[in-house]
Specification:
It contains 8 helices and 7 strands. α5 packs across α8.
């Protein structure tokens, strides 16, 4: 089968191609190549992948404490007694949390906002997990809140709003600094850049 050929006529295969084409970084042509590879490696790759997807779909949970995605609630990070509960890192989404965890540099706990404030998109404070963040800080025990938000206009607007909301609490609010370019997103940064940003965080 040619990579430039149209999608096959089988409805199940067509459906799989359309679904894969909706994934980030994949278009129709890449999806066709991926499906062809899966078909050729049906026993070694396609069937295990199908089982893994089914298992994850059944087991996935959103942590009610931090917003992370895991198979348990609370998630493994929130349950880990070795994590430093006094330092809370605030991120936009789970992808950013995973990026920081991949670096292995932060051993505190997290809070996932679920996005950023955006007047253009109609996203307000009530649409994000800002209220639950304030509630976590209000319970005490947190010494520093690290705002690890993307260096975009919406990210910085969200950081300023959170800083104002936390101003009445005895907590230090810091933000990532050097190493995060303007317009950069955490999930695409290498470990060295993330390390520099974490070490050079500054008061907001």
């Amino acid at each position: 089968m040619s990579e430039k050929a149209d999608a096959p006529n089988g409805t199940s295969i067509e459906s799989l191609i359309r679904l894969l084409a909706r994934l980030p970084g994949l278009g129709p042509r890449s999806a066709r190549r991926a499906v062809l590879h899966l078909i050729r490696k049906r026993e070694a790759l396609m069937q295990p992948l199908a089982r893994a997807l089914e298992d994850v779909a059944q087991a996935i949970r959103v942590c009610t404490t931090c917003g992370n995605i895991d198979t348990t609630d609370p998630c493994a990070i929130c349950r880990d007694p070795r994590r430093d509960a006094a330092h809370l890192c605030v991120v936009e989404d789970v992808g950013d949390l995973w990026a920081l965890e991949r670096s292995g540099l932060f051993r505190g706990r997290y809070h996932v906002l679920g996005g950023t404030l955006s007047a253009l998109d109609g996203v307000g404070p009530e649409d994000l997990a800002i209220g639950s963040l304030v509630a976590r800080v209000g319970k005490g025990g947190i010494e520093e809140v690290i705002l690890a938000l993307n260096a975009t206009v919406d990210g910085q607007t969200t950081a300023h709003y959170i800083t104002e909301r936390l101003s009445e609490y005895p907590v230090r609010v810091t933000a990532l600094a050097h190493g995060v370019p303007v317009g950069g997103e955490l999930d695409y940064l290498d470990d060295g850049t993330l390390a520099a940003a974490l070490k050079a965080r500054h008061p907001v």
